[in-house]
């Protein structure tokens, strides 16, 4: 048993695909080749939102708590988002058994625990429902086929079933208020279907933890949050192979017109992985430069192009300008964005959705190039006239 590896539910999208990643990261960690995982501001913000939600749900008046003086030091936006999550949880529970921020043994690694944000059980419908709050404002996370949700659902289901509870239906929801329209994403399955899914997860985890045969399988999903992504030779080889470059420093890069259609299609499809790989390498090398180890990598830091001019002191500049040209306006008045205004009005409890909608419009999305097997319907010929070939255009799947 490989005890130095902890297979966290939040990383399951990685380790269920790239089974060699956990061992590789543990090996590099042990050798001191990776920077410590110290978290981030976004992670701290998420922790604060979860703590606020837990305190509210445990109070006699959850919604009222979020409008009390106890939340005076919490950003208005966070209070509004957490209030929506709390109301969603209360509506889902509707009198049934429930739990929040509950630690459960992970069925595939009982020595470790995971935290289920919220769960509720209906005796009448024999249904278990879990709700996962994701406070991040970056990538939208879908509930369908989500291994993290499956792990949480299976782990809490086993706890309840050990108490004699019968479960026939499982519903798993992701509540992510800061992405898109904030509409919850829900995945419904039978208890038997969940068992099939988690049996496979259990098998994969067993192979990893027992030191069995694992494989590297680089992909956008598997590599996105991998701490060792910049040091993965398999990922590097697959990335460089996209343009048929050698393992050494390329002397030339092929012109698009010189590539076959199948090569161009593969590059378009895998461009996000290539771009992320390059960003990861730059981030890794920059960290080594900052640590004084730049010569080893053949690079150095130099002063870049000067930034745009700006006022040292805006108040002093305004006094000076108005003194030279009385009557002229040197201040720009700008209305906050529609999403920011909506959050403020929600927090104040004065939002009229119909009136607000009359003032807002949403432009159509820009055309994107994707592989032919993408599930979205193709645009008509006119849609392609808007592609301008700018950085990143059409390369996001």
Taking strands numbered 1, 2, ... along the chain, how are they ordered across the largest sheet?
A: 1-2-3-4-5
Rg for CA atoms: 26 Å
Number of strands: 5
The portion of residues forming beta strands comes to 5-15%
Q: Can you tell me the CATH topology of the largest domain?
A: Lambda Exonuclease, Chain A
* SS content category: alpha+beta
Architecture (CATH level 2) name of the largest domain: Alpha-Beta Complex
DSSP helix fraction: 40-55%
* Sheet of most strands: 5 strands, mixed
Pick out the low-confidence regions: 245-249, 381-397
Query: What's the overall average pLDDT, rounded?
Result: 84
Q: List the total number of helices.
A: 13
Instruction: Write down the domain tally.
Output: 3
Distance between the termini: 38 Å
**H and E order:** HHHHHEEEHEEHHHHHHH
Shape: globular
Name of the CATH class of the largest domain: Alpha Beta
